[in-house]
Amino acid sequence: MSKDDLGGLDRLFATVAARKGGDPAQSYTAKLYTKGSAKIAQKVGEEAVELAIAAALEDRDEIISESADLLYHLSVLWANADVDPADIYAKLEAREGQSGLAEKAARKNDGEKKNGLR
């Protein structure tokens, strides 16, 4: 599949994934990879907070801008963790048509079983 065949988020992911191992002096994305998982996760958190603030202020332009920043940093996080967006799409598809409350309860029960709490 060529880059032209991909949707916007997939194109973004392909671009940031291609920058892994790139020259950090030439690419902000490559520089993020060299800083490691903790720094990438921190950037995702910062952008999520900035988006939440923009939403609370009902600032449409900032919501758009911060959403783009969050999706960019999230794509870097995925690529760094070797997670393909297709895996996330599959998870979302599996949840489609399921009540959010039921899905959340199922995750809680699974977590309790894994942690020996049941």
From TrEMBL:
Reaction it catalyzes: 1-(5-phospho-beta-D-ribosyl)-ATP + H2O = 1-(5-phospho-beta-D-ribosyl)-5'-AMP + diphosphate + H(+)
Molecular function terms, GO-annotated: ATP binding; phosphoribosyl-ATP diphosphatase activity
SUPFAM superfamilies to which the protein is assigned, alphabetical: all-alpha NTP pyrophosphatases
Subcellular location(s) per record: Cytoplasm
Keyword Transport set for record: no
Entry similarity comment: Belongs to the PRA-PH family.
Protein name per Swiss-Prot or TrEMBL: Phosphoribosyl-ATP pyrophosphatase
Organism of origin: Sneathiella litorea
